[in-house]
Amino acid sequence: MVKRYDRLKQIQRLDPERDFLRIYRMTTTYEFPWDFTRALELALYRTYAVPSIGRLLAETTEFTERTQKRYDDTALLLDAIVEHGFTSERGRTAVRRINAMHRSYDISNDDMRYVLCTFVVIPKRWLDSYGWRRLCDHELRATAEYYRTLGRHLGIREIPESFEEFERCLDRYEADRFGWDEGSRKVSDATLDLMASWYGPLAPLVRGASLALLDDPLLRAFRYDLPHPAARTVARGALRLRARAVRLLPPRRTPHHARQNWEIKGYPNGYEVAELGSFPVPGVRGCPVPHANRTP
Description:
Order of helices and strands: HHHHHHHHHHHHHH
Helix content: 55-70%
Largest sheet: none
Mean pLDDT: 93
Number of strands: 0
Distance between the termini: 51 Å
Number of helices: 14
Number of domains: 1
Low-confidence stretches: 284-296
Structural class: mainly alpha
């Protein structure tokens, strides 16, 4: 019988540079599947506060008019790579689909690299606050290597070399680029409304709790009112109580992939990876914010 910390010990016996995919799979599908789902939701959500990202997403209307589909497709494309690997047919198809979407628009290398940084850094910060344990050094190094590999497949240049460099890159970019944009706020509202809608009559409560989990720079960028301190205490305290309960539970015996999440609702009869994602929108041919550094 697998004990609570047995997989952590197994992870620490692996090589994070050579076995990064195996470690990342174990971390995300056995140790923290629920937490990584929430953390990656937050990671993508943070990117809306960069006007060059949020405004483009609003211009495409994909995240405001087809919010559930965009949520589903993003999760399923990223999940296909984690589950099947970079060299598998499904993994390669997912990478091609992601590249095709990005190349439909004029997106800067800096923005692409920042989004990659959020995938590396935000899960660690989430688990530091709300996880049943923190990520070990092997997991941090494997996560950085996993996303360095993904970044190379996506043609991103000047990718950070380590977790610490990813973290510094993210913090600098947010300090320099977070700001108000009307389109970004529309995308933010649509995303919060979608997530709240999953809980039916509890939607207003869930939306308020979601805002209570956000940090002040993010809230200010979207011009949301700061939550009452009591709301923050309750929302964050509930997640910490959950973490204590999870720590006492038996460890997961089978992997849980993002495609199994109940929040994904658009494909009850299955899906083809090659058909996921968005396709070019007539009249939207580039980021509406000018950049000095463009991705070829």
